[in-house]
Amino acid sequence: MNYFPSLNFRLNSGKTWQFLLLAFGFLSLVGCQAAQSRVEPNTAFPSQTLVVSGRGMVDIPKTTARVSLGVEVQAQTSALVQQELAKRSQAVLDLLKARPDVTKLETTSISLNPRYSQKDGKQAISGYSATNLVRFQIAPEKIGSLLDEAVKTGATRIDGVTLVASDEAIAAAQKQAINAASKNARSQADAALGALELKQQEIVNIQINGASPPMPVVMQMNDLIQKAAPTNSFNTSVVAGEQRIEAFVTLQVRYQPTVR
């Protein structure tokens, strides 16, 4: 007994076989095309990245001197030491205030301390010392004559002279250094990829490591002032020179091998 009459009919029909073969062929073709579209990206050359670092330098003149000086005195009693300190400090301040080329004048430290000595195996106060320190700015070429006048007036110590460029000049130089570092990094990437016959695609990352000046030059003249008598005359010649501003820029460049 035939339980599948309709199935036997279709299997025995020639047209039905042709229809089934065409259907199976169409499904196989679609499957191959789908598989081919999935594999295609994997057969292409994958993109990679190159990391280069560029350096930029700009030299600018040092146009400002930051000076720290003051008065240090000693006496037997605290009253005498304060009186002498006030007298000399006021004379130095009057000198600095009278100079139109002195800017940003301010007092940075005032101190009064006892001095001790040993007597009969015991520590006793033998006197007092006091200091008054000020800080100001002036053009580097005027430091020598000003220090000479300050010592004659009553200054007994100079803690240091720092030579720097102006804040405006440093800010402008930082931008120039970053610009130069960026161009340097880009030229390195172009040279490397060109030599290796690699195709540059795009810059995917940029890092600026900072544009900052080196530590300012500090001229220590404390020993010179302490050894010189206040009535003696001296003139310190100062050559400011230049200050170097540096910047570093790192680029990450995506590239692709050239297909031959």
TrEMBL record:
Signal sequence residues: none
Pfam family, one: SIMPL
Gene Ontology biological process terms from the UniProt entry: DNA damage response
Gene3D superfamilies: Protein of unknown function (DUF541), domain 1, Protein of unknown function (DUF541), domain 2
PANTHER family hit by this protein: PERIPLASMIC IMMUNOGENIC PROTEIN (PTHR34387:SF1), SLR1258 PROTEIN (PTHR34387)
Protein name: SIMPL domain-containing protein
Lineage: Bacteria, Bacillati, Cyanobacteriota, Cyanophyceae, Nostocales
